[in-house]
C-alpha cells in the first residue's frame, strides 16, 4: 500500500509538530534562552536598555539579577531603581563586576543558583564559548538571560537571537507639541534561531505608557536595515558631481 492509502484507512496518522516556543515577537526575549541586544552605534545604550525593559516578557515573577561590568557603568551610567519599579519582578539585585570574565561568571552563577527568574548582563564582549555556557545553563535551569553588548560586537555566538537597537524620534505629544511623546525604537533582528525567516527584518516600535504595551509605530516605514559596519570601516562613497 502507498502512503495515501494507509492514511485514508486510518492506519497511520500524520505527526503534528509542536509549536516552537518564542516563535512570535519578541521571539522569546525575556521568556526563554539566551538573547543578545547590541547598540546600532555608540551612545545607543540608553535606547537599548529601554527597549529591553519594554519588550521582554518574563516567564515568572521573582528576583531579577542585573550584572554590569564596571567599565560600562563608568562610561554609560547605571539603570536607576525608578526605571525598574514597573517591572513584574518583586526583587531586583545588582552586581558590579570588575571585568568581563567576572561579569560572565556572576551571570552563570545566578542562572544555576535557582534564586533568579531573569538575568540581565552588560558586558563588553562575549565569545562563542562563553555564550554557549550561558545558553546551556539557561536551557537547563529555565532562566532567561539577556546580554547587553556594545555596537562593536560581531561574529557568531550561541545566543537564540541578536537584536541591533537604535533610537527613533518620539511620537508627537497630543497635549504639548513641544514635548516628547511615546518613545520609539528601531529594532533589527540580526539573527534568530526560532524564526530564521524573520532574520534581517527591522521593526519600528513604540511604547504606549497608557496601555503599557509595545506596538508598531504608526507613520514609520521600517524597510530593509542598512548593513552594520564594523568599527573603523569606511563609510559609503559619494558620487562625484
Strand order of the largest sheet: 3-2-4-5-1-6-7-8-9
Radius of gyration from the alpha-carbon trace, in angstroms: 21 Å
Oligomer: single chain
CATH topology type of the domain at 27-167: Rossmann fold
Beta-strand fraction estimate? 15-25%
Tell me, rounded to a whole number, the average pLDDT: 81
Look at the helices and sheets and give the structural class. alpha/beta
**What ranges have pLDDT less than 50 throughout 5 or more consecutive residues?**
11-20, 234-241
**H/E series, N to C?**
HEHEHEHEHEEEEE
Main beta-sheet annotation: 9 strands, mixed
> What is the percent of helical residues?
10-25%
Distance between the termini: 73 Å
Tell me, what is the CATH class of the domain at 27-167? Alpha Beta
Counted by DSSP, the helix tally is 5
| Second rung of CATH, namely the architecture of the domain at 27-167 | 3-Layer(aba) Sandwich
CATH superfamily of the domain at 27-167: P-loop containing nucleotide triphosphate hydrolases
Overall, the morphology is globular
Q: In total, how many beta strands?
A: 9
In brief:
The chain contains 5 helices and 9 strands, in the order H-E-H-E-H-E-H-E-H-E-E-E-E-E.
Amino acid at each position: 500500500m502507498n502512503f495515501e492509502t494507509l492514511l485514508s484507512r486510518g492506519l497511520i496518522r500524520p505527526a503534528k509538530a509542536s509549536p516552537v516556543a518564542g516563535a512570535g515577537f519578541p521571539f522569546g526575549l525575556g521568556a526563554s534562552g539566551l538573547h543578545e541586544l547590541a547598540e546600532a552605534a555608540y551612545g545607543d545604550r540608553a535606547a537599548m536598555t529601554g527597549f529591553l525593559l519594554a519588550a521582554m516578557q518574563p516567564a515568572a515573577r521573582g528576583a531579577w539579577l542585573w550584572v554590569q561590568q564596571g567599565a560600562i557603568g563608568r562610561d554609560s551610567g547605571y539603570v536607576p531603581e525608578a526605571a525598574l519599579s514597573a517591572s513584574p519582578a518583586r526583587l531586583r539585585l545588582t552586581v558590579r563586576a570588575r571585568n568581563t570574565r567576572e561579569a560572565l561568571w556572576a551571570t552563570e552563577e545566578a542562572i544555576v543558583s535557582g534564586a533568579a527568574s531573569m538575568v540581565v548582563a552588560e558586558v563588553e564582549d562575549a565569545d562563542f564559548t562563553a555564550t554557549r555556557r550561558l545558553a546551556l545553563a539557561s536551557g537547563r535551569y529555565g532562566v532567561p538571560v539577556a546580554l547587553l553588548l556594545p555596537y562593536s560586537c560581531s561574529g557568531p555566538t550561541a545566543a537564540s537571537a541578536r537584536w541591533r537597537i537604535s533610537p527613533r524620534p518620539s511620537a508627537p505629544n497630543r497635549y504639548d507639541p513641544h514635548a516628547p511623546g511615546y518613545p520609539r525604537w528601531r529594532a533589527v533582528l540580526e539573527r534568530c534561531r526560532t524564526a530564521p525567516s524573520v532574520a534581517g527584518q527591522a521593526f519600528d516600535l513604540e511604547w504606549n505608557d497608557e496601555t503599557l504595551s509595545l506596538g508598531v509605530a504608526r507613520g514609520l516605514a521600517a524597510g530593509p536595515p542598512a548593513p552594520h559596519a564594523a568599527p573603523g570601516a569606511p563609510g559609503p562613497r559619494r558620487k562625484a558631481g
